[in-house]
C-alpha cells in the first residue's frame, strides 16, 4: 500500500471540493501552535468538559483553552477580514460590537451599568456545548500587577463581587477569569470572561440584550 502524505495544515477540515490551490492569505503568517491546531482533524479534537474547564480556570492555566480546529481557522479568516475593513480588531469591537461612542467611563469600576456590556464570546473555545462563554467588556481599567500580569488583589475583589452579584442568583455553576496580559487578543478594550454551565436561555437573552455571537453570523469564504 503506498504511503499517503499528510495534508498541508491549511487543507485539513476543508471539503475536498473546496480545497484552495495554495495556502490562503489569512493562514500564511501563522504560529506553529496555530498550525498544529488547524492541522488537526475536528474528529480527533476532544471538547473540554465542564469539570475540565473549571479545573483550568481554578489552576490559572487559562492558556490551555484552545478553539476547535475548524473554528480557529474561521476565527483567523474573520479577524484577517476585520483588520482589512476596520484597521484593527479593537475598532470593530468598539464600533460594531459594543457600539460605544465614547470610551470614557462615567464613574469608578462597576459603579454604572452603562460602563459595562456583556456579550457572547464571538469565537468560543472548544468546550462542551452546555457551557456558555460570555465576555464582560468595560470602559474602565481593571488593574493588573505589572510584575505578574495578573489582577491586583483589589481588582480581583471587585471582579468577584460583580460576578457574584450578576450571576450567582441565576446560574448554579459558573467560573470567571481575566486573561493574563500576554494572552489578550484585544488589548485596547478592557474585558474578562465568564463561563456558565447550563444557564437559563431567558437569562442569557436578558443579560446579553439578545446578542448573537459572530461565529453564528460569519460565513466563511
Summarize it.
By secondary structure, this protein is of the alpha+beta class. The chain has helices at 25-28, 32-38, 50-58, 69-86, 89-98, 153-167, 201-207, and strands at residues 116-120, 131-138, 173-177, 190-197. The two termini are 36 Å apart.
Describe the structure in your own words.
The chain is 32% helix and 12% strand. With 221 residues, it is an alpha+beta fold. A four-stranded antiparallel sheet has the order 1-2-4-3, with helices on both faces. It starts with 24 loop residues before the first helix and ends in a 14-residue tail after the last helix. The mean pLDDT is 92.
Keywords:
221 residues; alpha+beta; four-stranded antiparallel beta sheet; 7 helices; 4 strands; 32% helix; globular; DUF3605; N-acetylglucosamine-induced protein 1
What is the H-and-E element order?
Answer: HHHHHEEHEEH
Q: Output the radius of gyration.
A: 19 Å
- In total, the number of strands is 4
Shape: globular
Q: What structural class results from the helix and strand content?
A: alpha+beta
Q: Compute the number of helices.
A: 7
Summarize the biggest pleated sheet.
4 strands, antiparallel
Q: What is the subunit arrangement here? A: single chain
Spatial gap, N to C terminus: 36 Å
Order of strands, main sheet, comes to 1-2-4-3
Beta content? 5-15%
Helix content: 25-40%
Mean pLDDT comes to 92
Q: Unreliable stretches, pLDDT < 50, 5 or more residues?
A: none
Amino acid at each position: 500500500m503506498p504511503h499517503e502524505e499528510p495534508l498541508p495544515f491549511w487543507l485539513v477540515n476543508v471539503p475536498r471540493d473546496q480545497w484552495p490551490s495554495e495556502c490562503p492569505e489569512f493562514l500564511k503568517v501563522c504560529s506553529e501552535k496555530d498550525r498544529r491546531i488547524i492541522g488537526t482533524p475536528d474528529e480527533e479534537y476532544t471538547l473540554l468538559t465542564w469539570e475540565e474547564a473549571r479545573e483550568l480556570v481554578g489552576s490559572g492555566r487559562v492558556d490551555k483553552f484552545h478553539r476547535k480546529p475548524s473554528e480557529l481557522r474561521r476565527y483567523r479568516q474573520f479577524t484577517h477580514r476585520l483588520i482589512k475593513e476596520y484597521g484593527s480588531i479593537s475598532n470593530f469591537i468598539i464600533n460594531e460590537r459594543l457600539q460605544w461612542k465614547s470610551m470614557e467611563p462615567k464613574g469608578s469600576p462597576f459603579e454604572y451599568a452603562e460602563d459595562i456590556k456583556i456579550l457572547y464570546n464571538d469565537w468560543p473555545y472548544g468546550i462542551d456545548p452546555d457551557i456558555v462563554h460570555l465576555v464582560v467588556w468595560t470602559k474602565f481599567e481593571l488593574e493588573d500587577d505589572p510584575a505578574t500580569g495578573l489582577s491586583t488583589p483589589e481588582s480581583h475583589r471587585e471582579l468577584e463581587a460583580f460576578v457574584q452579584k450578576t450571576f450567582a442568583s441565576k446560574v448554579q455553576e459558573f467560573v470567571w477569569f481575566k486573561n493574563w496580559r500576554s494572552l489578550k487578543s484585544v488589548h485596547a478594550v478592557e474585558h474578562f470572561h465568564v463561563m456558565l454551565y447550563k444557564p437559563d436561555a431567558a437569562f442569557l437573552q436578558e443579560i446579553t440584550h439578545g446578542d448573537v455571537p459572530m461565529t453564528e453570523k460569519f460565513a466563511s469564504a
